[in-house]
């Protein structure tokens, strides 16, 4: 029973790290999948397979080599010198992503809770600072509570969408985008999000004793991400193209389930953004501690202050500009991980 609980904790933490600002709000799914019409269903299946395979590989390799930070894994994959440079590059990526997460939290407060954007930023940062004092266990506990509720609401959104006139649009939706762009999108999306999840998956794999627990946690986590991707795409397709105008499109879809469910969904969107923000700050802090002699609290505070200044640019503008660029640059890393060998056949 203890192993089963640990499997689900790993899976939920994996899902919770991926389901951040862009995913939970629906902007990310519109950007990388739904805008490509009926092709998105197939590309989501491809992305799901990659999340299962490569996410599990990150966990397994990290456990095998005892990696304490993402730099340890990079050095193992690329060598000491190249791994160090790649880690610096990833550090910059993660700072940009955390700024997007923080901006997403501010957008939830402003657009749907009628509370100031700056208030949302400060609430997120203060809450993150206190949770970070508890370490990886608090991150796992938080995701073990939030992710099951998100999955439950994804099922509710599917049930509501099935009854709508546009329920079959995910199979027939047309697009002006090119076919090569449609099939490149899931590769970019998976590459970026695996790099995003790596600072959390590396210590998670390292701190888990049993190989089978790590393996099944990765498999269930990747499958869970795929399910939530497909559920969101199914709902968004039924509301296209009008839904694309909203900063938080999934929040608008939840409004069709009633005011009470909408408020719960919006709170959960914020919690998912918050949990990803906390997890990323934790992973970056571990990395900076290897580079400096600063305390973890000082590092975390400095990182959040940096993210606060960059979050002033807004959520959707940062998302549309930075995510595709980050994904393209992360393809090299994912290609190396793909060619490294399979942890599922070599679990030692």
Automatic annotation (TrEMBL):
Transmembrane stretches in the record are 7-24, 36-54, 85-109, 115-132, 144-162, 182-204, 216-236, 256-282, 294-315, 321-339
User: What is the residue range of the signal peptide feature?
Assistant: none
Nucleus listed as a keyword = no
**InterPro entries named in the record:** YkvI-like
Alphabetical keyword list: Membrane, Transmembrane, Transmembrane helix
Q: Say if the entry is tagged with keyword Transmembrane.
A: yes
Q: Which domain of life is it from?
A: Bacteria
For this entry, the protein name equals Transporter
């Amino acid at each position: 029973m203890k192993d089963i609980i640990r499997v689900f904790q790993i899976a939920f933490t994996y899902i919770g790290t991926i389901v951040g600002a862009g995913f939970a709000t629906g902007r990310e799914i519109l950007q990388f999948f739904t805008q490509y019409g009926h092709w998105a269903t197939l590309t989501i299946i491809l992305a799901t397979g990659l999340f299962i395979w490569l996410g599990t590989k990150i966990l397994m390799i990290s456990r095998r080599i005892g990696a304490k930070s993402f730099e340890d894994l990079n050095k193992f994959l690329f060598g000491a010198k190249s791994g160090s440079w790649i880690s610096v590059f990833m550090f910059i990526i993660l700072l940009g992503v955390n700024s997007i997460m923080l901006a997403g939290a501010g957008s939830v407060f402003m657009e749907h809770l009628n509370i100031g954007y700056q208030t949302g930023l400060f609430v997120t940062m203060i809450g993150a600072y206190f949770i970070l004092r508890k370490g990886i266990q608090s991150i796992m506990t938080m995701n073990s509570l939030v992710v099951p509720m998100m999955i439950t609401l994804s099922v509710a959104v599917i049930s509501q969408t099935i009854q709508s006139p546009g329920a079959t649009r995910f199979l027939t939706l047309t697009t002006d985008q090119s076919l090569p762009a449609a099939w490149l999108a899931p590769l970019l999306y998976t590459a970026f999000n695996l790099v995003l999840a790596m600072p959390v998956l590396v210590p998670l794999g390292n701190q888990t004793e049993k190989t089978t627990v790590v393996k099944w946690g990765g498999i269930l986590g990747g499958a869970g991400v795929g399910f939530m991707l497909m559920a969101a795409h199914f709902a968004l397709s039924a509301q296209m193209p009008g839904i694309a105008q909203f900063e938080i499109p999934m929040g608008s879809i939840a409004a069709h389930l009633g005011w009470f469910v909408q408020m719960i969904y919006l709170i959960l969107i914020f919690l998912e953004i918050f949990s990803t923000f906390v997890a990323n700050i934790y992973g970056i802090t571990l990395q900076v501690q290897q580079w400096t002699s600063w305390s973890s609290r000082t590092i975390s505070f400095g990182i959040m202050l940096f993210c606060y200044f960059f979050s002033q640019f807004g959520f959707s503008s940062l998302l549309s500009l930075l995510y595709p660029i980050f994904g393209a640059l992360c393809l090299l890393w994912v290609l190396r991980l793909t060619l490294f060998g399979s942890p599922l056949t070599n679990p030692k």
